[in-house]
TrEMBL record:
It comes from Sesamum latifolium. The lineage of its organism: Eukaryota, Viridiplantae, Streptophyta, Embryophyta, Tracheophyta. The keyword Membrane applies. This is Ferric reduction oxidase 7, chloroplastic. Keywords: FAD, Flavoprotein, Membrane, Oxidoreductase, Transmembrane, Transmembrane helix. The chain crosses the membrane at residues 33-53, 73-103, 139-158, 179-201, 221-245, 257-279, 299-328, 455-475, 567-593, 605-630. CDD domains: NOX_Duox_like_FAD_NADP.
Amino acid sequence: MDMKSGQEPLLSRKEDVVGCGKKRPFWVSSAKVILRVVMWVIFITWAAFIFLYPSDFVTDLYHKWRQATEGTLFGITGSIFLLFSGPILLIAILGFAYIVLAGEEEIHEKKSSKFPRFRLWTFPVLVDGPFGVVSAAEMIGIVLFTAYVVWAFAAYTVKNSELVSWFHVPSRERSILMLELAGLRLGMIGLFCTAFLFLPVARGSILLRLIDIPFEHATRYHVWLGHLTMLLFTLHGLFYVIGWAMEGRLARELMDWKNIGIANLPGVISLLAGLLMWVTSLPGLRRINFELFFYTHQLYVVFVVFLALHVGDFLFCFAAGGIFLFMLDRFLRFCQSRRTVDILSARSFPCGTLELVLSKPANLHYNALGWIFLQVRELSWLQWHPFSVSSSPLDGKHHLAVLIKVLGGWTGRLDRLVSSASETEHLLQRHSKLTASVEGPYGHASAYHLTYENLILVAGGIGISPFLAILSDVLHRLKDGKPCMPKNILIVWAIKTSDELPLLHTVGMESIFPNFSNSLNLEIQTYVTRESQPSLEEGKVIEPVNSAVFPASKGCGMSVLAGTGNIIWSGIYLIVSTVGLVITVALLDVFYINPYHVASWWYKGLLFTACMAVSVLVFGGLVIGLWHLWEIKTSSHEAEKNTENGTVKQNEPKVQKDSSKEQYVSTTLYGQRPDFRGIFETMSDRWGNVDIGVILCGPPALQTSVAKECRTQNLKRRGNQAIFHFNSHSFDL
């Protein structure tokens, strides 16, 4: 690449802007601005109210609000729900309207920037520690949550001291009372944290689409919040246990189940369920026994239900909004996963890697940095495993591919299943069939790899999978003249043995875009860390050990019932279910709770969770049924249209060998590991004063090394040097 092109201003051409298209009408632009402002005002007000809740001023406002709404149809429960859960649901509904107005391709369009600049989400601040790699934006979130917990506990401690001073009791009783009050306050803080706990794991949530945080990133926020929440709830229970033990009434209090007031026994059950989930989710134990972690995490149902029984309906409403959004997402995922999906083809490579090609409908969209969850019922009815998509959406409308590394028991059984199916097809000359269940695809709402003119893709082992999808996506876009920023791509791939080299040839670059070197400068550096010299087979394209193509059945593609699918149906599902919750609670109040004077806290908490479930199953289920019928009608119409036009295409992609080595620079180094300092400095000198997107997919040690070098290069940067933007595509569940 010449120096002139490296010095050109980033995003200098309008046609390169991702998401650019027809100019929107003025009213659409105005509505988007208004919606954005309203959502920010609601969120800031809601967050500020929670943050300042321990203060006397906000507490007084809260009590005045309760008194003003106490005689209404929904009573105290409705007033608390409107204050603490309503805002998050309202933001989700407004977010639906915003996404519809913006258009799915323009939600996160990147504006042109004459000069490179730092971004909070891609600047790594912490690179090694208990949180892993933490960006500046994430660090702000951590500081705010920490400040809230410290401030709230300090404010409550002052209030507790003032309250205890009113009672003239011996010092021992005073200490016991302080312990129990401290436990009460910690439980309240934990309840507020629970309001956020379930938001990151609602994989297809409109909220995540709105702020463009994919589920693989959001999962780590759930982990952080989970540790904080369980620490608070554990201290909450421990303080009460110590106080009761000092008073000699521990056993009686633990078994107590009050009708009016806090029911202790449900709280004990909820805490035990939470502790089991917490302990089995610790990194060491999770890696040793993933299945134990997975199965115990299903206790979240017990945790939530008995939490509602413990605190009652109106206190449960402090956290109900986030839980309700999670329930909506979970039910939608359940419905999508009921569909049996055809595996169109399977290949097994000598390096212990499988490639599966799955059938999907043309109207189910994803981008090249997508993920899916996969279940194969012949192996297990309960286990779901996440895999990065290795195909581009432009490779074909009717299929999606994933690469799977054979590492554990489940993947080993899958490899044997593919081998058995392949042998059946070749020896018996008959077609066998493989099927799977799929959730997703999930991932970024925007294809952010298309927003950088210069890319460094760092992969470790099977981490090359999403970068094959990126490479294919970029080549297709360049060939078709679609918006595409990348003009310079460096792939740095670290592998243990040369057996993994054939994975690069799963993308037929020359067949996608002949002479692509005129439009794309591509360089691939491969580091074989456990071999000191090339093998005799170097340079040969090694064929898969086993491969098979399976027959596809009509209507056996992936279901479009995904939260990341059609935004109109997703929004209707959210709105109808929310309205259904209001209607269900209103009917319950009018025809049961108020006429029969139901007053038991735990029972009303149970009824409220039942209303949440009914609204999702009945009202949401009605929308899902209509959505499913729409899917069938749309698929049938598309099939008829293709038949009339004579454009019916084979679902399975053709396997093509890569013969494009002369089109790019490829270097394979043996017995070495990547020197990221040298690589980054070389690219900075070569590309000049530009933004460089660094996308990584690999183990934690590799993430730490790359993030540390990005931070180092940015901190010592001079005016004419590049800015490195760190993006992790790694998913550790």
